[in-house]
Amino acid sequence: MLKAGPAKKVSIYVGEDHQHHGRSDYSAILDFLFYRGVSGASVMRGVAGFGADHHMHTTRIELLTGNLPMKIEFIESPEKVEELLPKLHEMVGTGLIEVQDTTVVKPSQASKKKAPQASIPSLRREGKAKLMRIFIGENDKWRDKPLHKALIESMRANDLAGVTVYQGILGYGANRRVHRETTLNLSHDRPMMLSVVDTEEKLRAYSPILDSMVQQGLVVLSDVDIVKYTHDYQEEERRKEVRQ
């Protein structure tokens, strides 16, 4: 967390169309700063400017361009800036990095509403569970409704912990017919997979409902270890006590 006292202000200048590993450079830099724990950062788009190549970039109608100047700015401790600079040099490419000495008079703080939650230490839970994977086709139906949507609704109604639906781009099943996504036909019965993690007891109890809904498909059960981090575990414990 940024504290009052000596600090460094870093300004990074890149073009709007500059890329880093297939992403906008300014967006990749902002993500890097966020996940490296920088206290805060801002991205600003210029309306006109030129760089080392002396090409004018402007938003004027007669000279509309997609490569407007972008500025990413953040303030951090000298030690933190020193730690981040090598990676920033790599990410900026032909852009410019400017570092200035500054003084933090009053550091920003999290909103009061979120402060109590942030003060609660995170809790790490571990345990054993089952992973259920259901393989069906995009065109499969249950009572005239897409099967994957019906399965989600039924799982929610039966209080399963959660489900994620994945859409495949290529695959085949028991009938050996290839299902694929093509340019000419974007909906060609693509393969779908539903992934559910919950206790063995709850998944076994749900199995009869699953059997009645899935007429043709594949269901796989696997043992998994779960690791869960939560800050709101005190409220979770209170809910458990109420249910008991």
N-to-C span = 40 Å
Q: What is the total domain count?
A: 2
Level-1 CATH class name of the largest domain = Alpha Beta
Briefly note the structural class of the backbone: alpha+beta
Can you tell me the residue ranges where pLDDT is under 50 for at least 5 consecutive residues? 183-187
What is the tally of beta strands? 16
**Rg, Cα atoms, Å:** 26 Å
Mean pLDDT: 80
Strand content range: 35-45%
The main β sheet shows up as: 4 strands, antiparallel
Count up the helices: 6
Q: Strand-and-helix sequence, N→C?
A: EEEHEEEEHEHEEEHEEEEHEH
Question: What share of the residues lie within helices?
Answer: 25-40%
Strand order of the largest sheet: 4-7-1-8
CATH topology of the largest domain: Alpha-Beta Plaits
Chart the SSEs and their pairings.
Layout: E1 5-15, E2 19-20, E3 23-24, H1 25-35, E4 41-45, E5 48-50, E6 56-58, E7 69-76, H2 78-92, E8 96-104, H3 115-119, E9 123-137, E10 141-142, E11 145-146, H4 147-157, E12 163-167, E13 170-172, E14 178-180, E15 191-198, H5 200-213, E16 218-230, H6 233-243
Antiparallel strand pairs: 1-7, 1-8, 2-3, 4-7, 5-6, 9-15, 9-16, 10-11, 12-15, 13-14
Helix pairs in contact: 1-2, 4-5
